[in-house]
Give the backbone structure.
Amino acid sequence: MRKYWLLFSQTVTVLLAAYFVVATLKPGWVSGRVGLTVIETASSSRPSSAPGSLSAAAKAASAAVVSITANKAGSRNAQTQDPWFRFFFGEQAPSEPQVGLGSGVIVSANGFILTNNHVIEGADNIEVSLNDQRTAKARVVGTDPDTDLAVLKIELGKLPAIVLGNSDVLEIGDQVLAIGNPFGVGQTVTSGIISALGRNQLGINVFENFIQTDAAINPGNSGGALVDTQGHLLGINTAIYSRSGGSMGIGFAIPVSSARQVLDAIVRDGQVTRGWIGVEPQELNAELAQAFDVQVQAGVIITGVLQNGPAAQAGLRPGDVITQVAGRPVANVSQLLGAVAALKPGEPASVTIARRDRRSELTVVPGKRPSPKLPR
């Protein structure tokens, strides 16, 4: 009996020793089914939507954001063709070629790309690089310098197109992502919030209604995407406020609602056609109101009227305060520009004015807004 007891105790001792050795060196061998599942999940995959993660939005939008390289050939001074110029100054070498870097957003599967006009302005050759490493030459469909937007077209198959969001429902504090190619380092995603809406009078574009964000935007991000937490396009990143050339937490994007109007017009007509009445507007303030003996408190005061222009022919005079255009209230210069631009050239529209202490309604036949003069 004692013999069997010793054999039993030795066997138990050996088994316990083996268990502790295996548990120490290979804990996974002795874990239950739940433990194995947890280890495999942690080591082989990641939850599709980790708390606080914006990876789904970045993944949904980044495939449609492209890098743009705009090449501008070196130019030769026209005076170098003059024999007398060459006699006195000799042969002059042409200026060095210029290369500009920016970003763009594929907005349709058939190859239309939205970007900033300043990214491709004056370029002789434009190359687009996709996130999947494909490249293509792009042609300019049309540009709109007044909003600093341009539409490009590439000929490639199976193009990822971004989903257009609704910038009109944005609120301050909403989370956003900025996607682009800053400094040419490659596609980069930064995050932030909507800091302000309706920014204007910045002197960047003629028509300004910017979304302001603190998501980092740097040189090279121009033309890239500002997206929401679903990866839907909210705006085209355009400019930054900076004293150093880099991001200081103040970036500006053109709302997708405005960009969509420009896109549709350029794709349809090759250009954007806006109304124009030929006035010089200024914000109404106490000094101007006193100088023109104006009694109203809201509106845009007209300080100049183009001779024989649409406004002059309708009877507008300097000192008149425009309060409505086609039934649309205007409280500042930006709103007036937008309301007049929305008018269809050649179609009469009502303009409500205040002249001293009287209000009246005039009928203006807007003309076509002149194209901006290109710098020489």
User: Anything to note?
Assistant: The longest helix spans residues 2-25. Confidence is low (pLDDT under 50) at residues 30-47. The chain is about 25% helix and 30% strand. The two ends are 113 Å apart (CA to CA).
